[in-house]
Amino acid sequence: EPEVTQTPSHQVTQMGQEVILRCVPISNHLYFYWYRQILGQKVEFLVSFYNNEISEKSEIFDDQFSVERPDGSNFTLKIRSTKLEDSAMYFCASSDSRTSGGDTGELFFGEGSRLTVL
Amino acid sequence: GENVEQHPSTLSVQEGDSAVIKCTYSDSASNYFPWYKQELGKRPQLIIDIRSNVGEKKDQRIAVTLNKTAKHFSLHITETQPEDSAVYFCAVSLYGNNRLAFGKGNQVVVIP
Q1: What's the gap in Å between the CA of A102 and the closest CA on chain B?
Q2: Of B93, B104, B105, which has the smallest distance from its Cβ to A104's Cβ?
Q3: Which pLDDT belongs to residue A103?
Q4: Exposed end of chain B (fewer CB within 10 Å): N or C?
Q5: Region label for A102, one of left (φ > 0), alpha (ψ between -120 and 50) or beta (otherwise)
């Protein structure tokens, strides 16, 4: 069964450093997302991406964050200057809304990348 | 933004009994209501979902019921087993908007 893959599984970084989290969505999916989950809390939406541009972003997704689809398979999340409060599990997800007539389709999540900012 | 609440936060049930978790939402325009199961340290996985044109959906031991008037939907797990122990998140989205708003999760513990 196809699945979303993410690298690295765990990254430790110093405050102020740049971090890039990588994701390979399911190959025939059109919508891509980043969510984050601070330890013990709920999953929070960061950004959605469709047709090579951001379709929606949350208030969490400020100027320190950016996303990119550099080629036909990868989808990356960059945090320019990490803060302590960026420590969280970051989940990439993808969906194929064509299967639900343009309505919200099932989101398939990756295993997550745990970011620890010291 | 959409406000999603889940109750109870923790639920303990004896193996074989049923578990019911309720989720309330604020935006009456919401039309997609999935439930995700997350085991410790793992990814959230969809277990069942329902759309606003349906009142109930069942898949083996799992069912979801939707009350659009009252703006709540519930997850029902029958004949619970130890492997049902996990955190269950409800989520909500609007038509044409792929953004999911998640609740805070319910910890379900099935006691053997």
Answers
A1: 7
A2: B93
A3: 62
A4: C
A5: left
